[in-house]
Amino acid sequence: MRALVSLLVIISFAVAGCNAGESVMGGARQFGSGLGAAATAPLDDLNLRRQLIPTVLLQAEANPYDLRNLNHCATIGAEIARLDEALGPDTDEPPSPDGAFLSERAADAASSAALNAIRDATTDFIPGRSWIRRLSGAEQHSRHVQSAIQAGRMRRAFLKGTGMQRNCAPPAAPGWFRPRGGSQR
What we know:
Shape: flat
Strand content: under 5%
Largest sheet: none
Number of strands: 0
Radius of gyration: 21 Å
Number of helices: 8
C-alpha cells in the first residue's frame, strides 16, 4: 500500500512538472510514450515481448573485427554511423547542445523516475520473478541483448582505431583525432 501511495505521488509530480510550461512539453511526451512500456513490463519477464536487436549489432557480435569492404575512410565512417544509430553517441563525442533549461531537465528526471516506479510496481507483483525470467527464456534473451551491445561498442572502438591508423578524419576516427597532413579518402 505504501508503495502504491509513493507511486501515485511520483506520478502526480511528474505530470505536474511536465505540464508546468510550454517549454517542458517534451517531458510530457516522454512520459506518455514510456507509460505503455512501463505498464507492460511483465510481458518482457514472461518472454511474450522481446527487445529487437539491430542487425548491425548482430553482425558485430558475429565478427567484431571484420574489415571486409572497409577500405576507405568514408566506408569506415558509414559503419561507425550505423553503430552510433544503434548504440547512441560514443563516449568521445561531446554532449549535444540541446539548450535544455534546468526546468526541462528536472521534468525529464521526474518523468524517468515515475516511469521507473511504474515499471517496478508492475513487475514486483510477480512471485518468483527471477525464476520466471529464467524459465521463460527472458533472462537468456536479456543476456544476448547485452552481449550484442558490448560487441557493438567493441566494434566501434576497433573501427575508430583503424580509422586513426589509416589517418582518417572523424567520424571514421575519434572526435579528438586530427589527421596528419591530409586525410585519406
